[in-house]
Amino acid sequence: xxxxxxxEKESSTYxxxxxxxxxxxxxxxxPVVSEIEHYAQLLAVKNLTLAYSLDTHVHADHVTAxxxxxxxxxxxxxxxxxxxxxxxxxxxxxxxxIRIGDILVEARYTPGHTNAxxxxxxxxxxxxxxxxxxxxxxxxxxQEGNAATLYDSIHQQIFSLPDETIVYxxxxxxxxxxxxxxxxxxxxxxxGNGRSKQEFIDIMQKLNLPYPKxxxxxxxxxxxxxx
Amino acid sequence: xxxxxxxEKESSTYxxxxxxxxxxxxxxxxPVVSEIEHYAQLLAVKNLTLAYSLDTHVHADHVTAxxxxxxxxxxxxxxxxxxxxxxxxxxxxxxxxIRIGDILVEARYTPGHTNAxxxxxxxxxxxxxxxxxxxxxxxxxxQEGNAATLYDSIHQQIFSLPDETIVYxxxxxxxxxxxxxxxxxxxxxxxGNGRSKQEFIDIMQKLNLPYPKxxxxxxxxxxxxxx
Lengths: 227, 227
Ligand SMILES: [Fe+2]
Ligand SMILES: [Fe+2]
Prior knowledge:
Two copies of one chain form a homodimer. By secondary structure, chain A is α/β, with parallel strands linked by helices. Chain A contains six helices and 14 strands. The first copy, chain A, has helices at about 35-45, 65-75, 145-160, 180-185, 195-205, 215-225; strands spanning about 1-10, 15-20, 25-30, 50-55, 75-80, 90, 95-100, 105-110, 120, 125-130, 130-135, 135, 165-170, 180. Chains A, B: Keywords: Acetylation, Dioxygenase, Hydrolase, Iron, Metal-binding, Oxidoreductase, Transit peptide.
């Protein structure tokens, strides 16, 4: 499998490219509109065809490249049915999957940060978007966020994966690239060490985060697939 | 919307083409491998691009055209995650959806005839495959069939649609083209007129149907996308 992790500085967003070495089909997970040239370059260098652009959720902090990638490469755009993004091509739900060559990309519905959050599981890796972050998790005070729901999603859909599964988050603000399910299950500051749901809800309620800077631009843009 | 109903005589199979008049994108539901030239002709005449080939389930009575359509037109093949068809492109689950232009094709999981049966709902129409047939239903004695499950599927996922919804079945052996939800809900010989689940189970158990003629050829072929 071909694997590449991209980083977009302004919003500290990670974008992932996965591709089948045989068929040369590729998917991008959470592409950022400003970074299209980087994706195009890698696709060309590696001789890959972009088949799908996947979003883990409707982002509030950056604009998705979904629509521009669709226009440029003819790929299909994929996101959860609950996203309310009418311009998407394929609307997945829990346990839906997308195949590229030998690779199966499996969707696990992980709401709580938003009501459309989906994690993607691929061969020993999980792309968690903003559900589970390294030593943290997505905020739950916007976009139908709900701490109790997020707790259940992470426990049932992510911590139930084998401990050695590599966690690739949607963001990291401290330079971390990846973690593992075991590491987060045991040591995540908000969820690790068997923390109860009520403890987690209390932590999330006390975060007192500022209003998201780009939400008023990013949300309407992403509801239009980044147009 | 562009709509066309095809009939394949040998297995009495209905295939449906739906397309967006604006974008000229099309889907085929339950295409039969022997009929590819008919589909190709209509696509050409109407100037349509085949975006997706959808199967309602893994058929036991005819071979799907999915793989040949994919090779000929570059479309993506779609079926339920439970199908066990590893060569599919997009594996849907209940409430997944596919968009072509203005048209949303919504999946409703309707197991019972098989464990992967999906009905597709599109603007006042429901494509029921072999779950609900005109004045009948699919058999439940093969492919993880289960009469109680089928009863629940039809009641919860099909009879819950508005009565005027047009029912387009996967087969009809008596020349019927379509029905309506109201008609079937009230008058279907096996399910109509408020028949109980136990009555339905008894009816299905007493059908005493012959071994499906083509199942030993069709099933392995369809598990390989019709290759
Ligand atoms: Fe987010
Ligand atoms: Fe069937």
